[in-house]
């Protein structure tokens, strides 16, 4: 989870605190943040959690997907 923290450095302290508190609450349900790096710079973050439903069975649900403005359209979000 620490890899995603620099993504919030440009956010106000109050909002950053709220984001970290919510992330902490969600982590008890398996939520994780994973950072994407390019040349040692954080360019994106994905927030995901494991889910199990009757219709789909077990799968990974993506809650949050953020890419910096500079890295958009660079293919950072593709496999």
Task: Describe what you observe in this structure.
- The structure is a single chain.
- The chain is an alpha+beta fold and 79 residues long.
- The protein has one domain (2-71).
- It is 19% helix and 39% strand.
- It has one helix and three strands, in the order H-E-E-E.
- The protein has one helix at residues 13-27, and strands at 32-38, 41-53, 57-67.
- The protein has a three-stranded antiparallel beta sheet with strand order 1-2-3.
- Strand 2 (41-53) and strand 3 form a beta hairpin.
- The chain is flat, with a radius of gyration of 14 Å.
- The two termini are 21 Å apart.
Short summary:
The chain is of the alpha+beta class.
Sequence of strands across the biggest β-sheet: 1-2-3
Helix content: 10-25%
- Shape by Cα distribution: flat
Structural class computed from helices and strand pairing: alpha+beta
Arithmetic mean pLDDT: 80
Unreliable parts: 1-9
> How many E strands?
3
How far apart, in Å, are the first and last alpha carbons? 21 Å
Strand-residue proportion: 35-45%
Q: Return the string of H and E elements.
A: HEEE
Q: Count the helices. How many?
A: 1
What is the gyration radius calculated from CA atoms? 14 Å
How many distinct folded domains? 1
Tell me the major beta sheet: 3 strands, antiparallel
């Amino acid at each position: 989870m620490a890899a995603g923290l620099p993504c919030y450095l440009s956010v106000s302290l109050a909002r950053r605190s709220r984001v970290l508190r919510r992330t902490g609450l969600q982590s008890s349900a398996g939520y994780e943040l994973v950072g994407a790096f390019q040349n040692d710079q954080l360019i994106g973050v994905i927030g995901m959690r494991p889910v199990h439903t009757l219709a789909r069975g077990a799968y990974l649900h993506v809650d949050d997907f953020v890419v910096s403005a500079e890295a958009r359209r660079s293919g950072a979000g593709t496999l």
